[in-house]
UniProtKB/TrEMBL annotation:
Belongs to the prokaryotic molybdopterin-containing oxidoreductase family. NasA/NapA/NarB subfamily. One of its GO terms (cellular component) is extracellular region. This is Nitrate reductase. It comes from the Bacteria. It comes from Persicirhabdus sediminis.
Length: 794
């Protein structure tokens, strides 16, 4: 960890403004941070083949030189003592080293024998070229749509919310809204810990004398609450009613923006459970108004627990046309049993009130992974999507992709693949009982830690001899424990890449240090497997000309054998894959910038269009004529991909519905899971950084003092958190950095030794298929080490 110790010691004045410079023996270059979807840009200092210093990039518009505690230590993630450095195959129950050639052959043979039973599970940590390679390999090569990213677990509800409202995915606003808004509303969101650089951007305005009102709508007090002007504590799931209550107030009192709604909106209604889908059915303003009548202040207060006076403050805020309002949300709205519905409703109140389309007025979803937007959503690595917003179910979209990939019509399978929960359920089910996924290749994620209801969706794989798990990883994880084949992966600046962040910003970086041992790039692994299948005679690995699907040529027109690792770096493979993907982004006006333009920037927000002088211009505010080049002159606001084909967005009515599981006599307490400031997701990287591990060494159960007293629990005592699915023993933390209300506990999920997802439920939104990690029923009791547990401990 010597390198990690000095990572954050770059002093002001030492790190250069321009990338690609060497100063005092340290070479500096740019890269986006490896962690969350904020997309902070860092300057990476390397010396003697190692990352030795990190500084915030002061020229980066996202972070303006600032980093969070994880960002300042991001270089340390490369230097954990237990890096995986060679391929390993499980033989007689033990992982044994093998060669790369053998590893690739093992995978290719599994696929060749049962191509329809193969799946790839990736993530929003895939670079754009990595995700695009997996996309092309599966759709065009194997005619197989069992391709999913872990973004299904975190961003799928945001996707379905955007698409069913505007007809196209991703936010219309950007981070500039945070500099302009009069009011910031946090919907079940804790950006002080989850997106601290963005939250600092808001709070810093106050230090300059600006007035910024923060309204925190949440199920527990957090560090963000400390800065809020209003905190509104709601009962889990009732955010649906709160959004409807705001809409009811606006409509009933004739305070909605009639001109905006008339010009730019249509109405839609959710359908019942049995036929619920992405698009619902058309509705009218009159029907909308009638459906809202239930959601009075009195009714909503009784349901949600928020006092009527506070609900009125929230509603009157949206009624004030002089205010500029930005809503922010993340997992609180997305990891939700009705995630699509609450996303739609928050978009709806912005549209209804006219708080949309001008700087400071925006409904904005934040992402938790560095390229959940750029790779999972834009490249389209979900089981139902194709690149650039295309859909597998749409014949014209399939045909367009087949033409671009130069494969015969019909190559892309019209049958949608399995979504994440179903994919792992099938993998963990014996073949003779319908488990028709026999091999999964995991890249850049840790499902053995992060899937919900782990006993059902992951650990049930143990003992199933017909199942084969391949894991590309950097460190040993909960996933590699059950892996049959482990492949050592290059990490962050040990390879080049391109990410896409939460505000549509596409960011490029170059490889800066060598990976350890035999660790290699994930994109290379995919291409090498495809080449082996090509050599075995698999017809899908050829295009219509008989050429290999991943044929790349140099400037002289000669084929570069990028499947051979000795030649993978003979050409910029990232650029080749990205430039092949880039035209796909044009169909839905998601025009990403050319690779060579990105090289010279700290990222550009799409759509990026070429100007008359040959330069490229980014777009900050989509659908708004003053900034979006695709809005027709005179339109003002134009939703040019609208569901109803008339340039209008949809305002939805979605009713409040009870959660899938609620507390009862046996399990009387709500459990919520999430992250902490010091660690990122499953902690497989941040727990290798000494400073971050020491700052937050293990998970805990956060309890309300009254609940703890009832159970005879004090700070540091061990408690059992038990659900219908499993249990976990955790130390108690009372009056820590956050405070849950009575009847609620919170557990962070970063700790591999305390897998709280043994306890969580796998119930998911019927539209987005995203699981609800934020609410299930548990009971909490004091742990007595000498007592026999009711269930086997994880």
């Amino acid at each position: 960890m010597a390198a990690a110790t000095s990572i954050a010691k770059a002093k002001a004045g030492v790190a250069p403004t321009q990338h690609g410079q060497t100063i005092q023996g340290i070479h500096w270059d740019k890269a986006p941070c490896r962690f969350c979807g904020t997309g902070c840009h860092v300057k990476v200092g390397t010396k003697d083949g190692k990352v030795v210093a990190i500084a915030g990039h002061e020229d980066a518009e996202v972070n303006k030189g600032l980093l969070c505690v994880k960002g300042y230590h991001v270089g340390g993630i490369l230097y954990g003592e237990d890096r995986l450095t060679e391929p390993m195959l499980r033989k007689n129950g033990k992982l044994e080293p093998i060669s790369w050639d053998e590893a690739i052959e093992v995978i290719a043979k599994r696929i060749y024998e049962k191509p329809k039973e193969f799946a790839i599970y990736g993530s929003g940590q895939w670079t754009i070229p990595e995700g695009y390679a997996a996309q092309k390999f599966m759709r065009a090569g194997l005619s197989n749509n069992h391709l999913e990213p872990n973004a299904r677990l975190c961003m799928a509800s945001a996707v379905t919310g955007f698409i069913s409202t505007y007809g196209v995915d991703e936010p219309a606003g950007c981070y500039d809204d945070l500099d302009e808004a009069d009011v910031i509303i946090l919907w079940g969101n804790n950006p002080a810990e989850m997106h601290p650089v963005l939250f600092s951007r808001i709070v810093d305005r106050r230090s300059r004398g600006e007035k910024v009102t923060i309204i925190d709508i949440g199920t527990r007090r957090t560090r963000s609450t400390e800065f809020a002007d209003h905190y509104m504590n709601f009962k889990p799931q009732t955010d649906l009613a709160i959004a409807n209550c705001i809409a009811h107030y606006l409509v009933e009192n004739d305070l909605y923006d009639k001109e905006f709604v008339s010009k730019h909106c249509n109405f839609r209604i959710d359908v019942d459970d049995e036929t619920r889908d992405l698009m619902g059915r058309p509705s009218t303003f009159e029907e909308y108004k009638e459906n809202l009548k239930t959601y009075t202040f009195e009714y909503t207060s009784e349901l949600s627990g928020i006092p009527e006076e506070q609900l009125k403050i929230l509603a009157e805020t949206f009624a004030d046309k002089e205010l500029k309002i930005t809503s922010l949300w993340c997992m609180g709205m997305n990891q939700h049993f009705r995630g699509t519905a609450i996303n739609r409703l928050v978009h709806g109140i912005h549209l209804l009130s006219g708080h949309f389309g001008t700087p400071g007025n925006a409904p904005t979803s934040l992402t938790g992974q560095p390229s959940a937007c750029g790779t999972a959503r834009e490249v389209g690595t979900l089981c139902h999507t194709l690149p650039g917003g295309r859909l597998i179910a749409k014949e014209s979209d399939r045909s367009d992709c087949e033409d671009r990939w130069n494969v015969e019509r019909g190559r892309i399978n019209p049958q949608i693949g399995y979504h994440t929960v179903k994919m792992w359920e099938k993998f963990c089910t014996p073949a003779d009982k319908g488990g028709d996924i026999s091999t999964i290749f995991v890249q850049v994620t840790n499902p053995g830690h992060t899937l919900p209801n782990l006993a059902k969706l992951f650990t049930a794989k143990e003992g199933l001899d017909d199942k084969f798990l391949i894991v590309s990883e950097v460190y040993p994880t909960a996933t590699t424990k059950l892996a049959d084949l482990v492949l050592p992966a290059a990490l962050w600046v040990e390879k080049g890449g391109i990410y896409g962040n939460s505000e549509r910003r596409t960011q490029q970086w170059f490889k800066q240090v060598e990976p350890p041992g035999q660790a290699r790039e994930d994109a290379w692994m995919t291409i090498a497997i495809a080449r082996k299948l090509f050599e075995m005679g698999h017809p899908g690995m050829k295009d219509k000309n008989g050429d290999f699907l991943f044929t790349v040529k140099d400037e002289q027109g000669e084929v570069v054998p990028i499947w051979d690792y000795d030649h993978y770096h003979d050409i910029n493979t990232d650029k080749a894959l990205y430039e092949e993907y880039r035209p796909f982004s044009h169909m839905k006006h998601k025009h990403v910038a050319p690779y060579d333009v990105l090289v010279k920037s700290q990222g550009l927000r799409w759509p990026v269009v070429e100007q008359k002088d040959g330069t490229f211009r980014e777009t900050r505010f989509r659908f708004s004529e003053f900034d979006d080049p695709f809005v027709e002159k005179g339109k003002g606001i134009q939703f040019y991909h609208s569901v109803t084909k008339d340039d209008k967005a949809l305002i939805w009515f979605c009713p409040y519905e009870d959660p899938e599981e609620s507390p009862d006599e046996e399990f009387p307490t709500w459990l919520c899971t999430g992250r902490v400031l010091e660690h990122w997701h499953s902690g497989s990287m941040t727990m290798r950084v000494e400073q971050l591990r020491n700052a937050m060494p293990g998970a805990y159960v956060e309890m309300n003092p009254q609940d703890a007293e009832k159970q005879g629990l004090n700070n540091g005592d061990q408690a059992r958190v038990i659900s219908r699915r499993g249990e976990m023993i955790l130390p108690v933390w009372i009056n820590g950095r956050a405070s849950p209300p009575e009847g609620t506990v919170f557990v962070p999920f970063f700790d591999e030794t305390k897998l709280i997802n043994d306890v969580t439920i796998d119930a998911h939104c019927p539209v987005s298929k995203e699981p609800d990690y934020k609410k299930c029923a548990v009971r909490v009791e004091k742990f007595h080490p000498d007592a026999q547990p009711e269930q086997p401990l994880p």
